[in-house]
Amino acid sequence: MESIGYQYQLTLKCFLDYGMMFNPKQIIKYRDELEFTYEEHFERVKKLSNGLKHLGIKPGDAVGMLEWDTYRYLEAH
User: Fold this and answer.
1) Cβ(30)–Cβ(71) under 8 Å?
2) Residues 25-73: pLDDT tens digits?
3) 26 in a domain, yes or no?
C-alpha cells in the first residue's frame, strides 16, 4: 500500500528539528510584530529549558503557563 501524508509525526519538536536541519536562517513571523529565525527560536527554547532545569523542574513535572497564542507559548512547548 502506498504511503499517504507525512512520514513523521506533526509535533512541535518535529517542526523545530525540521527547521533547524533544512533552513535554520528561515524567518518565522509572529503577527507582523516580531520575526526571528529557526536558529534564534531554538536558542530561546534552549534558554527556557535550561532556566526551568536550573529551577529544579524535571522531565515529567507539571508546569503551568498563563499564555495563549503567543510566540512564548510556542517556545514553551
Assistant:
1) yes
2) 999 898 888 899 999 999 999 999 999 999 999 988 998 989 888 888 8
3) yes
Within a domain: residue 6? no
Cell 530561546 found at: 44
Q: What is the b/e burial string over 44-67, where b = at least 16 CB atoms within 10 angstroms of the residue's CB? A: ebeeeeeeeeeeeeeeeeeeeeee
- Domain assignment of residue 20, yes or no: yes
Whether the full predicted model's pTM is greater than 0.70, yes or no, is yes
* Amino acid of residue 33: E
CA gap 56, 58 in Å, rounded? 6
Number of domains present in the structure of the chain: 1
